[in-house]
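Researcher: I need the complex structure. Ligand is inosine-5'-diphosphate. Inputs:
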Amino acid sequence: MQEKTLILIKHDGVVRSLIGKILTRIENIGLKVIGMKMVWANEDLARNHYTLDEEWARKSFETTKKTHEREGKPFPHKNHMEFGSLIQSWNINFLREGPIIAIVAEGPHAIEIVRKIVGTTEPRQSPPGTIRGDFAMTESYELSDKNKRVLRNLIHASDSPKTAEREISLWFKPEELHDYQKELDKHF
Ligand code: IDP
Ligand code: MG
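Model: Output:
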């Protein structure tokens, strides 16, 4: 039940002075920050973070395609791997646009609840109350397609225990993660 998850405040969040506001939401839900730093990722780190995973490409292709069809917008991509490698290259550029904040948060159900407070991939669809809904709702597939770039959606969060483990070891050395007690810990 105790989980660790990787959160990145992407460069759009940093330049919009949202570091404190996003961190507050993570603390408010009762999670413990056990690692945090500012990083300007190099090409290798960015590529390793956004690996071209076939399962991800297939899922993301289907979701994006459905949204385009629902809105009556053309979806120009032929197959999931062609789509996936384009998004991957845009993601690498975006992740390296400037320094970002990398955080490891720990707590019960941390992976699931952080995904919940982050919201949906497209900020336009993300409900009010979520980080993407509250701070980036004007961002949409329509805008990212038009400008040939990735969705600028402020934040990354691990989406499963397997990816959390991989991503945490990619961004943090074991000695950069800290073990300490918080007030809430005695109830867990
Ligand atoms: P997530 O960040 O909500 O977990 P993923 O599917 O893991 O979403 O995609 C990683 C990032 O790639 C997204 O946060 C978004 O910035 C970008 N992205 C994914 N699909 C698209 C798309 O169809 N158009 C533009 N950007 C996309
Ligand atoms: Mg993801």
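Model: Summary of the prediction. The domain at 2-175 is CATH 3.30.70.141 (Alpha-Beta Plaits).
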